[in-house]
Model the fold of this input.
Amino acid sequence: MRRVSKSVAIVGAVCAWLTSGAAGPASAQDVPAEYQAVLKTLGKSGDYKEAVLKVNIPRTDVRVTISGRPAPTPFGFGGWIALTKGDGGHDVMMGDLVLTEDEVNPVMSAVLNSGLDVTALHNHFFFESPRMFYMHVHGHGKAADLARMAKPAVDLIGKVAQEHQSQVTGGGANVTAGPMDTALIAKTAGYSGEQNGAVYKITVGRADLKLKEMGAVINSRMGLNTWAAFYGSDANAQIAGDVAMLAHEVTSVLKALRSNGLKIVAIHHHMTATEPDVYFLHYWGTGPSAKLATGFRAALNELGKKKGTREHSTH
Done:
């Protein structure tokens, strides 16, 4: 009987540990009630960390290839909307919607007609099929109102008739999932990441920029970050990512990436009316995973340096 009692006690302790949330990531109960309502309105899942609600809008419905090889959704096709509290109890909303070419303008009209802003539209990749575009959206207001305003656009994603087809031919990436030493990648890059299926992703914030909007801290989860996603094997992988930069950092980051054989696919902004201005650079490349991590580290090494004394005038 003592043995049975001991087993019961152990089971009870384990159950208490599991229900306390100590066994895993934040559960739905950890999301504030008003943000749970946002998730319900949008019909999406999400999480709440660092005072930010992140709503997931992944494009699992689209089978994307890059240079003729399948690319998993976490490699760079996971859209999102994020909300955080600003002054007066109002929220600041930012988001990045991943869209096909035929979806861009219907979704844009839905965003604008609801009273939200579109702050950027651009590519993140070369050589992908179908072509994918990224629309950055923005708004201020009560969380419930922002959810209601975003819903028509979110509901259109994946529902617009695809009238055009694009197909890329050529290229020899030939990347497939295999063993990848993520510990070595993390050591080389200087930052650890997270595994999502076959994709290993490192995200690095720009806390040094101290960016705020309407009293809200614009942190990594709101989109102010540099990241790298790795997919493939140690011998043959691909990397895709985004670098958040100040104006004086752009050229040095470009040089660092190009000198390591990584391709630049876009340079643009994501946000408007922020101070300082932040520029974002997207890159892609293939090769041994350790070499790709070295290229990413080279770009990171150019961030956060003080601006040089020599000034360049603009005309």
